[in-house]
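agent: user wants the structure for Flotillin from Oreochromis niloticus. delegating to structure tool.
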Amino acid sequence: MGNCHTVGPNEALVVSGGCCGSDQKTYVVGGWAWGWWLVSDIQRITLEIMTLQPKCEDVETAEGVAITVTGVAQVKVMTEKELLGYACEQFLGKSVMEIKSVILQTLEGHLRAILGTLTVEQIYQDRDKFASLVREVAAPDVGRMGIEILSFTIKDVYDKVDYLSSLGKTQTAAVQRDADIGVAEAERDAGIREAECKKEMMDVKFIADTKMADSKRELEMQKASFNQEVNTKKAEAQLAYELQAAKEQQKIRLEEIEIEVVQRKKQIRIEEKEIERTEKELIATVKRPAEAEAYKMQQLAEGQKMKKVLTAQAEAEKIRCIGEAEAASIEAVGKAEAEKMRLKPIVYLHCNH
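agent: tool returned. relaying tokens verbatim.
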């Protein structure tokens, strides 16, 4: 027979022993475990954060000044299985007070050892560095116990011979001196800075005024450029409009000229038709009769000419014939006379025509 055991997240349950005589331990964090009656050993170990206040009284520092230091540390048992086993080996069965006592003595031992290596000034002036050094040195030792140091801070440092008080006064005087020097330097620097600021302000004002003037001039130039561009665009638009208007007028004029050419061609064709009609009319009424009359006159003239030629030819033929006749007559008379003279025959008158 057995029993079920449960634990919260702030505890770890350690179960050892079993039904077969095994001594193996089982660790349960924030859960439950089964234990055999009269066989299993059930123990608990706290996982809560434990606050410790280590204190080392009258510990001599590196300069031989005895001081007392108190600190505050936050530690807890680690829950990783192997480290939890280390903690159980060290603290299982012990109360929280006993656990805190062991860890406290370890921290105080390391704190005392480190105090002997530092000066009061190092401890006093940089407590955080001192606390960090203690934490780093003590962490491996407490870690082997399964304990983790969550934080460690120095709470107070004091001594019984007023060393720290004297150191504080010296530091206070030094601080006061440095403060006075700082005030003087600050006033000097303030005056220099004020002058520099005034100069910078004047420079800035001059630069601002210059930029403003440049901006104004640039604005005016930009406006002039815009106006010029606008005027140019207007002129270009006007010119384009006029050119387009001229093109339209030219187009209209060309169309009118084409119309006039067409009309003129029609008029010319009409006039040509009229001239052709007139010529035909003239041919019919004047030229043809004139040509007929001219032909008539030409025929008459040619007839008269032919008549004259024929008349002349006839006259010439007549004269030739008369001449020939007369010649033949004379020749015949001559021959007749000759024959008459020879024969004195009958005289024959011979004539060819």
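agent: one observation worth passing along. The two ends are 207 Å apart (CA to CA).
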